[in-house]
Amino acid sequence: MPGGYLHSPLWKPYGLYGEVDFIYGWKAYNEHNGFTAAQTMLNVVETVMYGYYLWMVYAFGESTEKKERGAPKPSTAGWFGGAKSIGGQMGAVAVLVSLSTSVMTVSKTA
């Protein structure tokens, strides 16, 4: 919000957006509109689910020697450069978590 201590250096261009779209500005805040709070909670759940998916890949993923086109080399990208796959029930859970989280993302932006 304009006037906040973080507004000036980084979020200054969004000040105009808050004046044009009232759902993200002071008007909605003063009217105790719950949309932005609900959207924030959905963002938090979405971020936790993406983090859970990344943890599953890190904890249960098995390295493969698959050479994909455009993939970075492990020597330059570290852990992120290698291909990993998850099989079995944990693989099914990983797919379900990533699909559900992607649907949440699309539902907010579409």
Walk me through the structure.
Helices cover 62% and strands 5% of the residues. The chain has six helices and two strands, in the order ααααβαβα. It has a two-stranded antiparallel ribbon. 2% of the residues are buried. The model has no long low-confidence stretch (mean pLDDT 81).
Largest sheet, spatial ordering of strands: 1-2
Oligomer: single chain
Report the count of strand segments. 2
Largest sheet data: 2 strands, antiparallel
Strand content: 5-15%
Low-confidence stretches: none
Globally, the shape reads elongated
Spatial extent as radius of gyration: 20 Å
| Class from helix and strand fractions | mainly alpha
Average of the residue pLDDT scores = 81
SSE order, as H and E? HHHHEHEH
Alpha carbon gap, first and last residue:
24 Å
Q: What is the number of helices?
A: 6
Helix content: 55-70%
Concise synopsis of the structure shown:
With 110 residues, the chain is mainly alpha-helical. The chain is 62% helix and 5% strand. A two-stranded antiparallel sheet has the order 1-2.
Topology readout:
Blueprint: H1 7-10, H2 14-20, H3 26-30, H4 35-60, E1 62-64, H5 74-77, E2 83-85, H6 88-109
Antiparallel strand pairs: 1-2
Describe the structure using short key phrases.
elongated; 110 residues; mainly alpha; 6 helices; two-stranded antiparallel sheet; 5% strand
